[in-house]
C-alpha cells in the first residue's frame, strides 16, 4: 500500500513538472516570436529612412531632377530627424532597462496629479474637437488621499505618451477619457490606483495586441502610412511603470477604440511616515 502511495505521488509530481515544462516552453515560443518581430521592425524602422536619404542625396549628386533639389534636401533633413528620434528613444530605453536612469521620486496624491496633467492638455485637445474628459472615480473610495511614490516627470512622460497615442489614432470627432480609480484593496494588501486612457479610435487588431508594448512594434496600419511614430513609446511607458512597481495593459477592439491602463501601488502608512521623515530631515 505504501508503495502504491509512493507511485501515485511520483506520478503526480511528474505530471506537475510536465505541466511546468509546457508552460515554460510556451513562454519561450512567445519570447522568440516577439524577438523576431522586434528584429524585423528594427531593420525596417532604421532602414526605410536611410534608403530614402540615399535616394535624395544621390539625385542631388547626380544632378537629376534639379528643380526638386530643395525639396530633396528638406526631405533628407526630415528623415535624419526621424533617425535621431529613434536612436534617442532607443538609448533612453536601454538606460531605463539597465537602471542607469535615477528616479527622483516623491509622494503625490494620484487624483490631483493626474488632474493636473489633464488640465495641461484640456484646451488643445478640445480645440481640436475631441470630447476630452477627466473622470475621477477614486473620490468615494478608501484610498482617497493615499499617495503614490513617483517620479512626476517620468510619469508625465507615460501619461502624455498614452494621451498622444489616443489622439493619433482617434478622429477628432471621437472621445478621449482620462480615468482614475482604485484597484485592489487595503485588506488584501494590494491597494493601488488605476489610471486609464480610453479612446474611441480605430482600435488595435487582435493579432497586434500582444506585441504593442514591444520595442519597435507598430501596428500594420501605422507602419504602412509611416506616420511620425518610432514604435518605442509604449515600450518606454512599460519600462517606466515597471520601475515604479506597477503594471500596464491594453484592451482594445478593432473599430471601436482602445483602453490603456496602468496600475501603481499606493503607499501604506509606514511608507508615508518614512517618506515624511525623509522630507523633513
Ligand atoms: P508609435 O505610436 O510611435 O508607433 P507606440 O509604441 O506608442 O509607437 O505604439 C505602438 C503601436 O501600438 C502603434 O503603432 C499603434 O499601432 C498601436 N497603438 C498605440 N496606441 C494606440 C491607440 N490609442 N489606438 C490604436 N492603436 C494604438
Automatic annotation (TrEMBL):
List the residue ranges forming a coiled coil, or say none. 1-34
Residue span(s) of domain Histidine kinase: 41-268
Question: Domain of life, per the record?
Answer: Bacteria
Q: What is this protein called?
A: histidine kinase
The source organism is: Paenibacillus germinis
Lineage of producing organism: Bacteria, Bacillati, Bacillota, Bacilli, Bacillales
Amino acid at each position: 500500500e505504501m508503495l502504491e502511495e509512493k507511485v501515485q505521488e511520483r506520478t503526480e509530481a511528474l505530471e506537475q513538472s510536465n505541466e511546468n515544462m509546457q508552460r515554460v516552453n510556451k513562454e519561450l515560443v512567445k519570447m522568440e516570436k516577439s524577438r523576431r518581430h522586434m528584429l524585423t521592425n528594427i531593420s525596417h524602422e532604421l532602414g526605410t529612412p536611410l534608403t530614402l536619404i540615399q535616394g535624395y542625396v544621390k539625385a542631388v549628386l547626380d544632378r537629376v531632377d534639379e528643380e526638386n533639389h530643395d525639396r530633396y534636401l528638406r526631405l533628407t533633413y526630415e528623415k535624419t530627424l526621424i533617425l535621431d528620434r529613434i536612436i534617442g528613444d532607443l538609448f533612453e530605453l536601454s538606460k531605463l532597462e539597465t537602471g542607469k536612469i535615477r528616479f527622483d521620486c516623491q509622494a503625490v496624491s494620484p487624483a490631483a496629479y493626474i488632474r493636473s496633467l489633464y488640465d495641461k492638455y484640456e484646451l488643445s485637445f478640445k480645440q481640436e474637437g475631441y470630447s476630452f474628459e477627466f473622470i475621477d472615480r477614486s473620490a468615494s473610495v478608501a484610498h482617497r488621499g493615499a499617495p503614490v511614490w513617483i517620479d512626476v516627470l517620468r510619469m508625465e512622460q507615460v501619461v502624455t505618451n498614452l494621451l498622444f497615442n489616443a489622439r493619433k489614432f482617434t478622429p477628432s470627432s471621437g472621445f478621449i477619457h482620462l480615468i482614475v480609480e482604485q484597484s485592489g484593496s487595503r485588506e488584501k494588501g494590494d491597494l493601488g490606483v488605476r489610471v486609464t486612457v480610453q479612446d474611441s479610435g480605430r482600435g488595435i487588431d487582435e493579432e497586434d495586441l500582444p506585441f504593442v508594448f514591444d520595442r519597435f512594434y507598430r501596428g500594420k496600419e501605422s507602419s504602412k502610412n509611416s506616420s511620425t511614430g518610432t514604435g518605442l513609446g509604449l515600450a518606454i511607458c512599460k519600462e517606466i511603470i515597471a520601475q515604479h512597481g506597477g503594471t500596464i495593459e491594453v484592451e482594445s477592439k478593432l473599430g471601436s477604440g482602445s483602453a490603456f491602463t496602468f496600475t501603481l501601488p499606493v503607499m501604506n502608512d509606514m511608507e508615508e511616515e518614512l517618506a515624511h521623515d525623509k522630507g523633513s530631515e
